Amino acid sequence: MQTLADQTIPRQNFFYFFGVCLSFFVFVVRPGEVFPVLAGTRLGLVSFVFTCVAFFVSSGPQAIREGEFPGLKLMQLLLFLGFLVIPFSRWPRHALEGWYTILLINTLLYFFWLPFVRSPHQLRKLVKFFVLAGGILALAILFLDFTQVTQYGRVSVGATYDPNDIAMVLAVVFPMNVAFFMQGKLTSKLFWGALLVCLVLGILSTGSRGGILSLTVACLLLLFTTGKRVKAWHKIFVVLLVAGFFMSPFADTVKERWQDVLSGVDYNIQNPEVGGVGRLSLWISGMQLIVENPLTGVGVSNTTNAMGIEFGRWRSLHNSYFQAGLELGLVGLVLFIMLLKTAWRNCSQALPLLDENHELRSFALLAVSARISIVTYITAAFFLSHAYSLILPILLLISNGLYYISEAGIKEGGS
Question: What DSSP state is assigned to residue 316?
Fold first, then answer.
């Protein structure tokens, strides 16, 4: 009799497995941008089409219908809302383009990947892929010769990610990397420990204060986390590792940027009356626009248009909550917050069930780390416009997998 741990979902498992892994790697790492040798290969389109075909050939729609995935309907509502507000936008053509190139693509990827996480074995693989993808980005900005260095010494790679974006991805990946480090044997610990060092150094290289703040939040949550699978020396080691690097010369760029904030000369606290374009002035402008467009918003990807025409500043809002409220109206803001709440609740409800199931107990630590990753994203989202980037669907996807296997494990145990 096939157990839950051995379960594989699609009939043509290898075909689907390859499609998921390929598209997951391509859309997280963006190798066509990060590695010049792959430029122009259209890896995104190829992997998306391949995964779409694999999803339907492997009975993906049936697997979703048969599974219980809290948050799935919220994703559908977010996608529908993004399309619904297009006719009400002052820039409907741009809103439509933003909808199908960002929101539609990322939502479909979430649907295509969802059947994959119904198996514990495959869920673990997907989380490892997520951590390794973050590791590749960290290694790229640390060692590749074609990284992009700003005038402030901050580092990034590719066109999709700026330094703050990369710091956010690495900070979100960090807690899950810690989980694999804690669970591994000696050789595995060395591997995941080395990757941890790369992630921390990568975040410091970006010079992102939001990244450092998110990493600090993750470390504090880790430090005060209790559980059967969380050993005290593991927590202390990881926190001391991060603190040591933060006090080292590697963090000089970040420390200089924090000194600007504390001295009051940072651009982020300039007043709009004197031409400042920092986050505070942008947030004030964004809130004013939300009040003006509370029901329909201005459409996906139209923040810069709205800010430019109304306030003379063609800038991102640098805040995912204001972005959702401005582009999709107050309903969009509520949906965004509900998705975050659902991802957290999935992990919280799965945690005690996983802890009680001997076969699935190793996933309890993964549920703990996923919750920390969600809080890390919540923190980073306050400083970046990532309301419908791929990170939120990935976190929801992982939480769906944890919830599904915990519930399936209970049913299997009772049968």
Answer: -
